[in-house]
Amino acid sequence: VQLQASGGGLVQAGGSLRLSCAASGSMSSMFRINLMGWYRQAPGKQRELVARITSGGSTTYADAVKGRFTISGDNRKKTINLQMNNLKPEDTAVYYCQALTLSTYWGQGTLVTVSS
Predict the structure, then answer these.
(1) What is the 3-state secondary structure (H, E, C) of 50-94?
(2) CB-based contacts of 107: which residues, under 8 Å, 6+ apart?
(3) 3-class secondary-structure state, position 27
(4) Span 58-91, pLDDT tens digits
């Protein structure tokens, strides 16, 4: 499984960005994807969960982003999006897309910078 993420950039505090991630690979590997999500890693910090969505549509959010971020996905196409509103400087990080089968796959990361 390969993951291609896009949509990062520079935005002022209070602004919005939308991240997208598309999975690709063999039909059998794509079929096995049962969860996709976004993680982020700020400088000097550990990678942390931002939001994730199961193949059934159930979502989980980190407390820090609840009410501001929304994850959505197309299970047939194996794509997910992360709509990020009311961004704060502490949201600045490299955002990574993740997909789970019996293995864990990571995208290349996209930088989100929120200026104050």
Answers:
(1) EEEEECCCCEEECHHHCCCEEEEEECCCCEEEEEECCCCHHHCEE
(2) 3, 4, 5, 21, 96, 97, 98
(3) helix
(4) 999 999 999 999 999 999 999 999 999 999 999 9
